[in-house]
């Protein structure tokens, strides 16, 4: 369930484009107007506004926003105005080919998306950046992490809710034999089960594992693997069990302690606002006894804060 709030009666995309252009004119930018418009339009409406802006002013709205805004507000807004699939592709490209390689960000985007989303994402990546996503992953990753990402991108998985309990129990036993029962770890078995099974099936495997061995599959993954390979497996498993809980934890980790990981905060808020942010907010409050809006308010400031809170929404 999305947190994005859209007015019941919308102005036309042309009117919005004109209002945005007026906000850019003169000394400085009227950021309040920019936020009030773009933070309350869905992906389809934002695309129409960008089309109208180009048609009227012969200029790309993305480029104009880039010149008018600054800092984290600029980073968040430029990510937001992209279409959802193009946004994921842009995050992946920046994570793999930017000044600083961020394999955890790339892994999160890949391992938290559905097979159908991944197929469209790969096509978009190829169209926008002129190379295959798999090629960039091959050049930036190695070992079991590399094998996991390529398998997760390449194998079509069932997306429905049906599960065979007997098959789930068999997979649980296979993972136990591949990990905790033996000396060393058979990483191939973990890669096979985690990349070939549906989320519903993998959640059932976790339940069967706990029932059979009185130990969580998550703890088994932590004890048997490490590094970015472990992070990838845990992302797949946690999203199979509850994407909202996974992203609530990611947001908490981004904001706890000294300083804030604004890159993570922006990525999660912007990519989930139109998907399941209401569920994420509920999970956040349940686990950390504080509203997500309050946490963001205390960790951010200025137009950056206003924009993120416009996407997340205040708790009712």
UniProtKB/TrEMBL annotation:
One of its GO terms (molecular function) is calcium ion binding. Transmembrane segments: none annotated. SMART domains: ANX. It comes from the Eukaryota. GO terms for cellular component: cytoplasm; plasma membrane. Belongs to the annexin family. SUPFAM superfamilies: Annexin. InterPro entries: Annexin (IPR001464), Annexin_repeat (IPR018502), Annexin_repeat_CS (IPR018252), Annexin_sf (IPR037104). A pair of annexin repeats may form one binding site for calcium and phospholipid. Keywords: Annexin, Calcium, Calcium/phospholipid-binding, Metal-binding, Repeat. It holds the Pfam family Annexin. This is Annexin. One of its GO terms (biological process) is response to salt stress.
